[in-house]
Amino acid sequence: MMSSMDGAVTAAPLRTGFRWLQLAMGIVCMAMIANLQYGWTLFVDPIDAKYHWGRAAIQLAFTIFVVTETWLVPIEAWFVDKYGPRIVIMFGGVMIALSWVLNSYADSLPLLYTAAVVGGMGAGAVYGTCVGNALKWFPDRRGLAAGATAAGFGAGAALTVVPIASMIVTSGYQHAFLTFGIGQGVIVFVLAFFIQPPRISIPPKKKQLNLPQTKIDFTPPQVLRAPIFWVMYLVFVMVASGGLMTAAQIAPIAHDFKIADTPVSLAGFQMAALTFAISLDRIFDGFGRPFFGFVSDTIGREHTMFIAFGTAALMLLTLSAYGHVPIVFVLATAVYFGVFGEIYSLFPATCGDTFGSKYATTNNGMLYTAKGTASLLVPLASVISTAYGWKAVFVVAVALNATAALMALFVIKPLRRSFILGKEAESANTATASAKTETA
């Protein structure tokens, strides 16, 4: 472990506007990869209607995408630490464009799965780099910065859900894949030229009792040996599994509930229930990530987790009982995604607080692989729903979120504080002993 101040360059006055510009460009890049995950549900039934491969087989591509996206992030983060963010994000832009181009031509499951691997590599390169860069630029506002960056990924699909759905109807899903794939990739590639990491040491936020932050930078091997990392990993998996299942299956769920095309009127707008739900989900998801990040900067990470995970359990329970009612389906999924997306702001911020800034990109990348682990449960949702119905799937997700809420408050909170204080005391004792030895 290394003290965050050892060998650090004295912090020069920050060009505040420049670091916010870096954050903004990262948000736009994240928005460009959002459709790879959140727009996918619009393509499932059209692909099945054309090739009759079955939902479970098609959704396997989604799982492959998420696994590839997350499990390769630590490797991509290593390239970021060695070569900087620019080259990695440029690579990501090329890969996400290639992925949807391949999807537009995929006439077999192997080709569909290959496109998922390519897209996962690209999305992971962009996601891991942008979140890690935000943590480095904003050690004083980690929750807000990680949340705002993740909001691009959560809300990025909101503006394009209706155009994509319309293009699928009018021109076919292949044309939608091709058009949006190339457009998204080009934007990321161009922005990559302007993204850079901080060149000076940025002082962390003054310590607060409800927001403990380590003074030590832990290397990735040290992080992997820390029990608190694996507890956080487990809770991440528990919460992410329900959100990924809902994001991937929301269209099939709406069709099985026979409400997908039912008109819903809300706040002066009227749309089909499914289109309305997906659009509102992305807006709430995008808003929730920076909001809960900001809240966690104020009341603490674990208290915010408890509130969010508990609300998620309540919304899933509501969907289980009343999801067949169109207006309930739209509102309950919107609130659910509003509190679900915060895991992508709270866990990176918590990781940075616990393990330091120097290796934040790699350490957060390792924690982010929990999303890939959770994605392995997505195909099981199709199997369970076929055998027992969607209510059974929702009940399992409710149990996972409720348990995660309790673990955040009663396991993560004390364990994380004990880890930070213990390691700092250990480091101080080592430094004192070393000083005495030199004096002697």
How would you characterize this protein structure?
The structure is a single chain. This protein is mainly α. It folds into 2 domains: 16-201, Up-down Bundle (Growth Hormone, Chain: A), CATH 1.20.1250.20; 213-430, MFS general substrate transporter like domains (Growth Hormone, Chain: A). It contains 18 helices and 4 strands. The protein has helices spanning 16-38, 41-51, 55-71, 73-83, 85-105, 109-137, 142-155, 161-171, 173-192, 220-224, 227-256, 273-299, 301-322, 326-340, 343-355, 360-375, 378-388, 390-439; strands at 2-3, 216-217, 263-266, 269-272. Strand 3 (263-266) and strand 4 form a beta hairpin. Helix 1 packs antiparallel against helix 9 (173-192) and helix 11 packs antiparallel against helix 18. Mean pLDDT is 85; it is low at 2-13.
Which characteristics define this entry?
4 strands, two-stranded antiparallel ribbon, 18 helices, 440 residues, globular, Growth Hormone, Chain: A, mainly alpha, disordered N terminus
Short description, anyone?
With 440 residues, the chain is mainly α.
CATH fold description of the largest domain: Growth Hormone, Chain: A
Which class best fits the helix and strand makeup?
Answer: mainly alpha
CATH H level, superfamily name of the largest domain: MFS general substrate transporter like domains
- Bulk shape: globular
